[in-house]
């Protein structure tokens, strides 16, 4: 008796314009080299994965928050889609939108003076999220 294995392919329509924009933006990556980013009065140390607040205090980040912040710092002022951000933090097995929203909220609570009225990580309706500060790589 032979066993037949069936494989099903799922075809998902894509938004070609959005896909081209994300390709132009490059593949999301986790920057693991040495150095740091400076934005506003904040600093992100890439080697230790520590966020340094304006008052000099170290702010703990989850792995997802760190990867998300690096994705934003690599592309300041550019709207990044939830799909792009999900790939940056390697989200595969959960509700992507909810997972990204949770990480965004976590970052806003750590970075924003008032997370309910964000000024650093902005929501771009229909596009995703945008990091609204100048970024310097040191």
CATH superfamily: Winged helix-like DNA-binding domain superfamily/Winged helix DNA-binding domain
Strand fraction: 15-25%
By CATH, the topology is: Arc Repressor Mutant, subunit A
Instruction: Compute the number of strand runs.
Output: 8
The total domain count is: 1
Q: Write down the secondary-structure element order.
A: HEEEEHEHHEEE
Structural class: alpha+beta
Helix content range of the residues, please? 25-40%
The main β sheet shows up as:
5 strands, antiparallel
Distance between the termini: 65 Å
The low-confidence runs, each spanning 5 or more residues with pLDDT under 50, are 2-16, 27-32
Mean pLDDT: 81
Strand order within the widest sheet? 4-3-2-1-8
CA radius of gyration: 17 Å
Give the CA-based shape.
Answer: globular
Helical segment tally? 4
CATH architecture: Orthogonal Bundle
CATH class: Mainly Alpha
Provide structural commentary.
This protein is an alpha+beta fold and 138 residues long. The chain has one domain: Arc Repressor Mutant, subunit A. It is built from four helices and eight strands, in the order H-E-E-E-E-H-E-H-H-E-E-E. The strands form two sheets. The chain has a five-stranded antiparallel beta sheet, with helices on one face. Strands 5-7-6 form a three-stranded antiparallel beta sheet. Strand 2 and strand 3 (50-52) form a beta hairpin. The radius of gyration is 17 Å and the shape is globular. Residues 2-16 and 27-32 have low confidence and may be disordered.
């Amino acid at each position: 008796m032979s066993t037949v294995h069936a494989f099903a392919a799922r075809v998902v329509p894509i938004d070609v314009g959005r896909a081209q924009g994300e390709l132009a933006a490059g593949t999301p990556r986790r920057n693991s080299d040495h150095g740091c980013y400076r934005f506003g009065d904040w600093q992100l140390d890439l080697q230790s994965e520590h966020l340094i607040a304006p008052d000099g205090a170290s702010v703990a980040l989850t792995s997802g928050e760190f990867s998300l912040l690096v994705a934003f710092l690599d592309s300041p002022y550019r709207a990044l889609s939830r799909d792009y951000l999900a790939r940056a933090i390697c989200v595969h097995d959960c509700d992507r939108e909810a997972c990204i929203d949770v990480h965004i909220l976590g970052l806003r609570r750590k970075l924003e003076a008032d997370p309910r009225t964000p000024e650093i990580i902005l929501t771009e309706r229909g596009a995703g999220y945008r990091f609204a500060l100048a970024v310097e790589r040191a």
